[in-house]
Amino acid sequence: MLPRILHPEQLQSYRLSLGDHCRLALLSQPAQGSCTMFLEVHDPCDRCPPHVHHRSAELFFVLRGKVIFHVDDRSISASGGDFVMVPEEALHDLENPVPDRLYLLTVLSGAGDFAELLRHGIPTRHGIPTPLDAEDLRVLRSL
Length: 143
Known about the structure:
The chain has one domain: Jelly Rolls (Sandwich). The protein is mainly β.
């Protein structure tokens, strides 16, 4: 397989539902059982709902912004340049506590089916294509 480059302008981001304040842009085209990599953009003061990834750890690299991770009964804060690992089976969520957007590079291990969820949405709902805007492109180009 040849290496490839993705430019920020080529990324297609999605919201999993109409009420989401997070956009996810798929970066890897995973094979079954391999990891999925994506860019997360969280709106100011956003908090995603608590969830669990069965048989998958989730790894986050904070590109820009501040974030609070709630993992089981603990909370930890991270900011630009920090790396956070959430173990498989851990109940977790994250929040953007500030009035600026949060940018994360996220890797979900062993979750080849997450790409399909992203494209097609949660069952009974469809993924909603939501382009990255000029601010997002400017931030990504400045990293």
